[in-house]
Inverse folding.
């Protein structure tokens, strides 16, 4: 990396459906978009080595600022040469701002114009995160893409509070930009606004006036249901800058990705494939599979006969079931490898469909596939709850 | 493997010290001895894939009959093509007989001339293991080396009971040989006798009259201390058949291996390197290291600067400490990889020293090394307790 490096985004192709094929240039190389980032909360994508993460096809991963700030500490990571060297991952890394975790994990917390004070979920120690501090922490980590501190309002939430929160988030966005000292690291703004189309549009328009390297849609996939999420995207993405990457935070299921790409989203992250893998829930071309089921006891077939991943090439359903029931560490590994491979294969196919100008048909085919129908059933059951 | 295959052992060289260099021929290929077998209790060496186990230098692994019998069940494994295919390991496998686990893990148990009745530690179900049944289970698993059912008497234990137990173990040994139906799978007898030199000699001599493919020394490393263990070996191995492999069960520390090889032992297994790895205790050329220590917080050096394993080549002490403190799955993986590599490197050096006819000096050098002194300190502390 030279001093002159600046992050940038090439919009390579736009499909008639609205899907975008792009390339995000970071200090640690390019990322082909649409892209899905596996989550590596504590400087490790749980259960896997960096080589394995790369072998699934992942180009960029996500780290959590809140977690790394508390343990091992951003100054420790900085002194050890930054997050890339610390965890032995030489590809691009995006870190979230910690805002979401402060609101979901921390004990006591107090929001003010200055920032957010909170108690660590680990040891109860008190901390203050401000927009400036959050940029400083991420610069210490050396994240290729940093995220601004934002408030993630709960769902549901009244319109008046949402509007206030939005205004504060925008003031914080300006402070974040001013705090930046390493221009080779990208900084993304975050759009809030709940499921209110008007607030989302206003958020998009006001953030667009600020010179961010990319724009994220936050505050979705927090219980509003898939339909509401997609309606919100419909009301948001048309107002976002066309030549900057668009990142839908914390989303989602395979079907969520397919739908959001059609609405012009370029980047995703989610714990779903890794967390469900550790819980024995696997994504396959035939839909979701709970590997613990007794029907797999003597099933010598691979988990997914259509999958080329190491897990499917080397092990039977019976063995995966045995490992999971026996709580063996290898279960988490083999399951995580498969789920991430499934997600990255989906992203490869998404990119190819956009390049072919055929994304609408691809999305329709996916929706009516076994996998798509399985996901729609899951989404419906969730909405009913 | 052809129908005509029969297991055999070549004694390639004997060092002036008494150490032996050999080659055990199994249905799944040869094993260079002295060899250390990583423990793969439930059809997985915990935390690692078979490829990784092989990459540490391990040629043969151990599976646990008791555990596999209870879960997933030997008939399930047999129906899926045997243990090798089930777990995707194509090298030799030795299985213990389950006797040790019945005496250490099972709830209720009742010993009779017929065998041992016990309750599963998993669900309380009742089972009877007889010498014949144990051979049948191991043949269903397809173990390259099967072990006879034996009683492992507690330590300490009175001489009269030991003598009775020994006589029964010998009767069970004869029944085990008679029950065998797959002659391509080796069957090893097990010598008991506590720390009584006279009983051990008698056990060795009477078992030697039976046509086993190898002979194991059982009932050691159960709390008697290293000195007593080595004295017992001194009284035992001279009476064991010279042209059959000798296996010291459940042993041990690096120093135990060095000492036992000098007393003519060819095979070892132990949970020590894998279990301590998961507990953050690592074997290095400078002695044992507890990776959680605060002094490693910002230590950018590899765990062991003399080690070529992937863990030491790719990660810092600070990162290993962070993973361990964060209870990350990757900690168990990287630590296990290192400890097994350490053990296999020791075995390679042991074999080379025997080939060079220089084992006595090798052992002396090891004893006075940092690693050897660290192990002696551990042994002393244990004896004092």
């Amino acid at each position: 990396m030279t001093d002159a490096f600046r992050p940038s985004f090439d919009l390579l192709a736009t499909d008639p459906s609205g899907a975008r094929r792009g390339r995000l240039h970071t200090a640690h190389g390019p990322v082909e978009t649409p892209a899905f980032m596996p989550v590596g909360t504590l400087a490790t994508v749980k259960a896997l080595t960096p080589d394995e993460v790369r072998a699934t096809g992942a180009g960029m991963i996500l780290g959590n600022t809140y977690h790394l700030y508390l343990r091992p500490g951003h100054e420790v990571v900085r002194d050890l040469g930054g997050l890339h060297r610390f965890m032995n991952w030489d590809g691009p890394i995006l870190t979230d701002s910690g805002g979401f975790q402060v609101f979901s994990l921390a004990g006591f917390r107090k929001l003010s114009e200055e920032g957010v004070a909170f108690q660590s979920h680990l040891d109860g120690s008190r901390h203050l995160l401000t927009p400036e501090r959050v940029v400083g922490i991420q610069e210490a980590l050396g994240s290729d893409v940093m995220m601004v501190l934002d408030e993630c309002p709960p769902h549901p939430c009244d319109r008046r509070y949402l509007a206030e929160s939005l205004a504060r988030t925008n003031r914080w966005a300006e402070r974040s930009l001013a705090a930046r000292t390493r221009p080779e690291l990208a900084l993304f703004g975050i759009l809030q606004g709940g499921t209110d189309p008007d607030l989302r549009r206003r958020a998009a328009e006001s953030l667009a006036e600020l010179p961010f390297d990319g724009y994220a849609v936050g505050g979705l996939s927090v219980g509003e249901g898939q339909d509401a999420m997609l309606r919100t995207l419909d009301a948001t993405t048309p107002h976002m800058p066309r030549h900057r990457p668009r990142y839908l935070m914390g989303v989602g299921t395979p079907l969520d990705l397919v739908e959001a790409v059609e609405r012009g989203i370029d980047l995703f992250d989610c714990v779903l494939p890794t967390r469900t893998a550790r819980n024995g829930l696997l994504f396959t071309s035939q839909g979701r599979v709970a590997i613990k089921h007794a029907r797999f006891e003597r099933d010598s077939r691979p988990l997914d006969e259509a999958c080329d991943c190491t897990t499917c090439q080397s092990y039977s359903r019976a063995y995966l079931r045995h490992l999971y029931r026996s709580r063996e560490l290898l279960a988490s590994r083999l399951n995580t490898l498969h789920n991430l491979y499934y997600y990255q294969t989906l992203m490869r196919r998404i990119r190819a469909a956009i390049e072919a100008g055929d994304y609408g048909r691809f999305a329709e085919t996916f929706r009516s596939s076994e996998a798509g129908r399985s996901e729609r059933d899951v989404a419906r059951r969730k909405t009913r709850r």
